[in-house]
Amino acid sequence: MRNWHGEGIWYGADYNPEQWPEQTWAEDIDLMRRAGVNLVSVGIFSWALLEPAPGRYVFDWLDRAIDLLHDGGIGVDLATATASPPPWLAHRHPETLPRRADGTVLWPGGRQAYCPSSPVFRGHSLALVEAVARRYARHPAVVLWHVSNELGCHNVHCYCDVSAESFRGWLRERYGDLDSLNAAWGTAFWSQRYHDWAEINPPRTAPTFANPTQQLDFLRFSSDEQRAQLRAERELLNRLVPQPVTTNFMIGTGIKYLDYHSWAADVDVVANDHYLTAADPQPQVNLALAADHTRGVAGGAPWLLMEHSTSAVNWQPRNVAKTPGQMRRNSLAHVARGADGVLFFQWRASRAGAEKFHSALVPHAGPDTKVFREVCRLGADLRALAEVRGSRVDADVAILFDYEAWWGAELDSHPSVDVTYTDRLSALHAALWRAGITADVVHPSADLSRYRLVLAPTLYLVRDADAAALRRFVEGGGTAVVTYFSGIVDEHDHIRLGGYPGAFRDLLGVRVEEFFPLRDGETVHLDDGARADVWTEWLHAEGAEVLAAYTDGPLPGVPALTRHAVGAGAAWYVGTRLDDDATDRLVARLLTETGVRPPVGAPAGVEVVRRRSADRSWLFVVNHTGRPVRLAVSGVELLGGTRCDGELEVPAGEVAVVREQPAPVPATA
To answer: Glycoside hydrolase family 42 N-terminal domain: from which residue to which, for each copy (predicted)?
Structure first.
């Protein structure tokens, strides 16, 4: 991996000088310097300007913009500009346009109007990458290369004939022969057996449910096709440029169908875009989940926040503005959880186009605004935190996350539409957040040995090797928690016979003979006082200790919560959907059992996260409440707090950072 770090925390935004008269550019540089901006992403949606006709490149405007940025001391994250093809490509090659499952063609006029399997698109895009790379490979302003932009955001699935042929090729490579494919897809069901590769298509609109393994494989294929574009551009850049390469993932923004765990090896730095959901009553909790997951994808290494917003976005039904101080809290919470760079979309709010109402560092009202004053304050904050760069986040807890399990869990014709993959993930993570505990969100194949507690929520699809790894973790002294609808199928979406939860049955010491999903709005109660809904099951404890059973509903007296001692550790099973209070109590019991504690005691609504390097540590305190708080913290105050009677006082809505002295010994040491 090539080094992507600067001397401090990167700070900046997407910069689109081509949208503005050149006389604006000098003002932009002056304002960037005033704000403390040191990195901007340039050229992301510039293909139509850089290549106005096939093979004719126009770089003079980009030359001037990059030179101006360099003269101003601002680094450039230079895009390959392949994020959205120019209109001339579809006009000359309509076969490059993507199609939906029902055959609808998606035309130019928005962005990403291309089939990801199209060799024509691939050829033209790589020609552009080569032209841009050869021109700017040695430019002193360029510190990072930005492949495409949000790959697969709008065109992750294409069902055209070109994609169908690519899908067949992907299946040949995966299965080798038709007998293996037919076995994996279970084609003995519904007379679906294939006798020729040409008979196979993507899961296009059908009279009823499509073959579930066909659907699952098409989702895998589609993620791999987007990854193939990333890899093709990355491989070309590696031959031509010395700088590190990235692309912006979309972890935690509702993007379901891209397997970022498999993409991480193809970038020098994991970068992520994150936006708040206006309807979310506690957006800071979901922000933490996205950051923890991004860090997990990065293998615990620092990562780059490539995009978020200074205030409102433009693409939700109701685009709520951020309240005073919220942008700063959001940004520094990302840094607390491992980001070594804070960038936004975009530098200057657009006058025209679909995103003209999206907030920016420089709003339509100009620099004499709340937003720009906060932008300048954040720039000063990040300069003060330069020493934190390169450090890692402390976490004794891991939550297992697998995109394929997500895809499989939410396929059609399942026991209940109310069982969704991210529901228990979010609930357990939120309970940890409320308890002051930071968790890594990692793939089931990750090394679990450093953790004390591992949670496996709704891990519907699991491979044998990953199930075995979780068992080894428990046998070695760890504590694991598995929730309902986990371990049900193998990687082919075939049921693991013998009783649920299949792959985890022996580890958990339970056997479920039948699911009893609940009706909409129906609730049940447990004999420990808990309330639950959505899901119950006919469970037998076969070696596990019963911790709680149902008192009503369809299964009174049947176990709902169990604990099984295995080796030096224990495996807990949660067979129903506990409400938030019961989830909090469960997490409290688990933390007590494992000895996992927050970095310092803090009141509700105050987020405390520790980052650590080889010889020192930093405590980030984010006060999301409307009142000042005091915490017992020892060290050098770097940001935002005041000392009172040996305590750190953090004002309402503010963020403080302290370099701890001495650095505490890691709990896992």
So the answer is: 14-384
Q: Tokens 């935002």 appear where? A: 640
Fold: same for 10-157+222-388 and 606-660: no
pLDDT the model gives residue 586: 98
The reply to whether 160 sits in an annotated binding site is yes
* 651 touches 625 (CB < 8 A): no
Q: Are 306 and 271 contacting, i.e. CB atoms less than 8 angstroms apart? A: yes
**Residues in Cβ contact with 553 at an 8 Å cutoff, skipping those fewer than 6 apart:** 518, 522, 523, 524, 525, 536
Catalytic residue ranges: 150, 307
CATH fold of 606-660 reads Immunoglobulin-like (2.60.40)
445 CB-near residues (< 8 Å, 6+ apart): 463, 465, 466, 469
Residue 642: what pLDDT? 77
Looking at residue 258, its pLDDT comes to: 98
117 vs 162: CA distance, rounded Å: 7
**Residue 644 annotated in ligand binding:** no
Is the model's pTM score more than 0.90? Answer: yes
**CATH no. for 397-594:** 3.40.50.880
115 known ligand binder: yes
In this prediction, residues 587-605 reach a mean pLDDT of 96
The verdict on whether residue 149 carries a ligand-binding annotation is yes
- Burial (CB count within 10 angstroms: exposed 0-12, middle 13-18, buried 19+), residue 77: buried
pLDDT confidence of 478, banded at 50, 70, 90? Answer: very high
The span from the first CA to the last CA of the chain, in angstroms, equals 28
Mean pLDDT across the stretch 541-545?
98
User: How high is the pLDDT of residue 7?
Assistant: 81
Q: In this predicted model, what pLDDT tens digit does every residue of 171-226 receive, in sequence order?
A: 999 999 999 999 999 999 999 999 999 999 999 999 999 999 999 999 999 999 99
- Where helices occur in 321-384 by DSSP H, the ranges are 326-336, 370-384
Beta carbons within 10 angstroms of residue 165's beta carbon = 14
What are the extents of the domains in the chain? 10-157+222-388, 397-594, 606-660
